[in-house]
Every structure is written in structure tokens, then in C-alpha cells.
Write a structure and sequence with these properties.
The structure is a single chain. The chain is of the alpha/beta class. The chain has two domains: 358 residues, TIM Barrel; 149 residues, Sandwich (Jelly Rolls), CATH 2.60.120.260. The chain has 13 helices and 21 strands. Helix 2 packs parallel to helix 12 and helix 3 packs parallel to helix 5. It is globular and about 75 Å long.
Length: 543
Amino acid sequence: METNVRLNRIKGFLRAENSAVVNEQGEKIILKGWGLGNWLLCEGYMWLGGGKRFDRPRNIEAVIRELTGSKYSEKFWKEFRENYITADDIRYMAELGYNSVRLPINWRIIMEDEPGIIWKEEGFRLIDRFLDWCEEYGLYAFLDLHGAPGGQTGHNIDDSVDDFPRLFTDRDSWVKGIAIWGELARRYKDRACVGGYDILNEPLRPGLTDKYAYNYLLPRLEQFYDEAIAEIRKVDTKHMISLEGAVWSTDTSIFHKKYDDNVIIHFHRYGCMPGIESYKPYLEVREKLNAPLWLGETGENTLEWYAAMYPLSVSLDIGYNLWTWKKMECRNSPCSVKKPENWDKIIGYANGGPRPDYEEAQEILDKYLENIKFENCDKNEDVTIHAFRYPGTRIRGTDFDLLPGKGISYSGLRNEGNVFGYHTHTGMAIVPLSDKPSEKRFFFDSGWDRFSLELTEGEFAVYSFEKIEKGCSLKLELSYCSDASITVSQDGRIIAKEQLSDDTCGYVIPAGQIIPSEKSGFRIEVNGGTVRLDALMLTAPAG
């Protein structure tokens, strides 16, 4: 893949200007980036762990200490912080073409878990060094309080002690949380590479039960935002504030007011249909508050889902930040950590299995520390290829361009929608590939890819790709044809006309007919008969 490092992407502080994010030169910025999960707040699933004993930092720390002893454990965590994210990771992110990065922080990285306010300079050293790398490679960094004192979510993702968000009920935790934002603002108020402050990640999970009802906790969240912003603004009037709603950052009820003049509305989307329907509540908030939107956490899905979700986000002027940059044995993150030999013994012990001896456990973890280094990770370039729709991308037939809209990017000739709730407003026929009941294949599986686009005479759909090179070809994958004739155009230029027979299951437009372009829309139009377009793939040139 062609690299795309631009060291001049940081042009002063970012700010919210009406519903857009702009730099100090007034240029609109669409944020595209990744979250650095697991570095400063570990999550067990990124280690292939399972169960409560290995799900959050304090539990992972306990298991490693039990397996290896206190002295080795202390050494392990120091090396882990040094190895997991380095300058090479940030450089590579910039080379791939991203312009921003979100840094999840556990409060125990920068503050002692003791009475009073005691800062940990080693934690700030890690943040300082990370920001230096962002400056060097031209990425805006968002500081994310992913785990607040006491916990803001009540789940493993905030390193909570008892799965309840004590930030909102315990005075000591509240005071510490406000102090953290005052200190971060004091230290970084003059650093333009800091894109903004993400006050709390995914506050208030669903299903909270305790003497404190949800209708008590939600106003407390609002109060925390008010006080944290006030504390920041005492020393820092420049940086943008990122605010998230409750319930995994999907509930918009907290956005009944604009908390600051320089706010970006932050939301998360995972196991959803990758269509406008999934953005609708947040688009309504944007219109109401005249503030920009940020899909600040998303991903953990298939590459074809990425190809549908993120170009749509950009077309709606919504920046995005994928989760997560690096984890073990994966295909949907840019960096995949190789699983060390005998790793299952570590996870097995955490799940109640036999305990390996000290020496063996240390050897396994030493290998893990080597494997997490950037140079030792497997690189999954297909992830970026699909997110940006570069050559090599496979797009589902149902994921045609939704904008500019009916009559331009799709025909929209039918009045009916569909029972699946996908692109129901378009007037396009979305039909199931099979009449058999479908089972969930993975946690965030929405089943969106089990449909085909049916096109009859006079109907068309447009699919946009970027960075089209000489030698690219276009393959149409069809599950049904009935004496169909089709026309394929690139940016209004006809590149193929074909009569398809009943047994056609694929049609390839050869490389010589496709013109290199920074961005092109390919229009598939049916002139007669019926086809069902399952997918299309822009094939990269050989070599």
C-alpha cells in the first residue's frame, strides 16, 4: 500500500465551528483514526482472556503477580508500557493515512490509588512521549479518561472494583476525577497536537442496580461534565471537549443542552446495520445543538462492514475512531500480536486451571513482551484498504452510495422498503440470500451481509472507491440473473455493456477499461431482466 505520511497535518488547535471540526486555518477536518486500547488500560479479551479473573487491569495484574511474583510483575508492566505502543506504531498509523488517535487512560496510570491527590510522573512521561510522536508524525491525539476513579461505567472496561460506577456516588472518587482533568489541562493546554479531551468513556452501563437509581446517576453524569469542563476552562480555553452519552455511549438524553461552546458530540456504534438508520439519533442531536459529531469508538467487525460504515460516516461529515489498533490473533485490527507458545497455560490458570511454575510463566510472558513490539506484529493492511475503500475492497451490493441520494447515487424507484430495517428509505429492493434462519456468528454480528440487492430494468446503484490505480479490474458477484442486460459506468463513462445469462454468477470488467482516479463512482444499471448483486470487488493490480 502506498504510504501517506504528511507531517504538516497539525495546523494549530482543533475547534468546533458550528457542526464542523476545523483547524486554526479554518480548514474542515474529518477525523479518521484508531484507539490505542490495552496500552494504558488493559482489557482481557485483547489477550485472548476470558472470565472475570482476567478481564480488567487490576485482575490481570493480580494473575500475573500470582504467576510470576512481585519482582517480575513490576518488571513486566514497565516493559509492557515501553513495548506495546512505540513511535513505530504512530508512524505506521500516519503512513496508512489516518490523521488522529485516541488514547484511553486508566486513572491509576497517572494517580496513586491512595488517599489524597498524588500524581505518578511515570504515567505522564508515557503520555508526554506519546504526544511527541503524534507531533512528529502529524496526528491529532484525543486524551480519553477510559477508567475514572471509582469507575464511570461499572464494568471491566473502566477497571471498576465492584461493577458499579462509584465515580458518581463516592466523594473521594469524584474529587479525584475532577482533579485529573484539571491536571491534564494544566499540563497540555499549550499542545496543539492534542485534538481534545474525552471526559469519560462510556459512562453508566445499562442494567445498573443499587440503592442509586439510574434517574439519580444520569443527572450526576451531567453534573460531572459541568464541573470537569469548568475545571478545564480555569486554565485551558483552547481545547475541544468530547462528551459521550450513557449506555455504551449510545444514549443521547444527556445532550439536552450544549455544555460548552467548543464541544464535539461523541457516540459509539458496533453491532449495528451500517446505514443511515444507525446515525439518525446523533444527526438529530447535531442539528439541535449545532455541534459536530464524532463516531469516537467503533469496529470489532468484518472488513466489509468497515467498507460500508466508514465511507458513509465521512459522507455525513462525521469523523470516526476505530477500536482497537492492536490485539492478539486478529484480522480486523491493523496490528496483530502473535500468540506465544504455551499462552493457553496463562489463560487457563486465570480460568481455574493448573498453575505453571514461576519460571515457565515468566518465559511465556517474556515471549509476549517480544511479540507485542510493532516490528514483531503481523500487519493487516486489508483493514485500512476496506475502511478507505482502496483497491482490494469488497463491497456488499446492498452498500451502495447513500449520498447524494435518490436519482443520483441510486435509482429509488420502488415504494416499498423491507422487513430488515436496512436502507428502508431508499426505495431499493434488499432481499435475503437465503430463507434459512440465521445464527449470530460473532458478538457484534448484525446479519447485514446476508442480503443481496435486486435490480430490475431502469434501476441502478453507484459504488465509490478511492485511489484507483492503473491495472485495477472490477468483479461483480451475482446470485441470480434472468436474461439481464447491464451497463457499467465509471464517473459517467460507459466501461462495459453485457448481456448476462441465467447461469451467470460473476462478471469481470477487465483492467484496461478502468481509468486511474483519486475517487470514482461505478454505476451498475440494469437495462432489462433482473439481477441480484451480492457484492462487487475492485481488484488491485497484480504485484
